[in-house]
Design brief:
This protein is of the alpha/beta class and 189 residues long. The protein has one domain: Rossmann fold. It has helices at residues 3-10, 15-31, 34-38, 58-67, 80-92, 129-139, 155-163; strands at 48-52, 72-77, 98-102, 114-120, 140-149, 168-174, 177-182. Bound molecules: S-adenosylmethionine.
């Protein structure tokens, strides 16, 4: 990652930038409905899902539909406006299976708790990527999945970022969505 990107990664977006991004996502979601991407992940009914860097929640709300009332979405973001937006939309639509988490890499979720981590268009904004990948590995169940995309990186960069530490291995890539399966390594060993 270039130095200027590293600098950007450390900074919380201004509220104005955040609102601009959220507006852009509304248009994006009309052209590319979020459910399409969710359906390319390994999501299933009843899952506990962590949507890391959820932004305004496009993928959290699509995932909430799939997991149903037995499942739960943990919509996590560093930005207070993201959290506010997701909470407000969930209340308005009476969606009860979404919990918001304001966090910077440390989700405070229990170990082996999550079936699927969604990480869409976020990794470029993360300064300490290894720390976040370890956090995903910690919260995921032994048969869990990480579904990933980030258009800021090419194939090789994505494989390096996610699987270099040997915590995840690629199971399938389809239409630019990578589904990584957790590697059963116990980090405390
Ligand atoms: C480009 S947006 C993508 C939002 C959403 N995943 C989507 O694709 O619609 C990136 C999001 O990551 C969040 N983010 C950036 N750094 C973060 C961090 N360290 N921890 C959690 N979220 C972060 C930003 O606040 C922003 O909402």
């Amino acid at each position: 990652m270039k130095d200027e990107n590293k600098k950007a990664a450390k900074k919380l977006q201004s509220h104005l930038d955040y609102k601009g991004m959220a507006f852009f996502f509304k248009i994006r979601d009309l052209i590319k409905p979020p459910m399409r991407k969710i359906q390319r992940s390994k999501i299933k009914e009843g899952d506990h899902v962590l949507d890391y860097g959820c932004g305004p929640g496009s993928y959290s709300f699509a995932a909430a539909e799939v997991v149903g009332k037995e499942g739960r979405i943990y919509a996590a973001d560093i930005h207070p406006l993201a959290i506010k937006k997701v909470k407000k939309k969930a209340e308005k639509k009476k969606i009860q299976n979404i919990t918001t988490l304001q966090t910077d890499c440390n989700t405070k979720l229990p170990d082996n708790f999550i079936d699927l981590v969604i990480c869409f268009d976020v990794m470029h904004a993360i300064a300490d990527k290894d720390k976040l990948i370890k956090e995903f590995h910690r919260v995921l169940k032994p048969d869990g999945y990480l579904t990933f995309d980030d258009h800021h990186y090419n194939d090789e960069e994505i494989m390096n970022i996610i699987s270099n530490g040997n915590l995840f291995k690629l199971e399938v890539k389809k239409d630019k969505i990578y589904n990584f399966r957790i590697n059963g390594i116990n980090l405390s060993e």
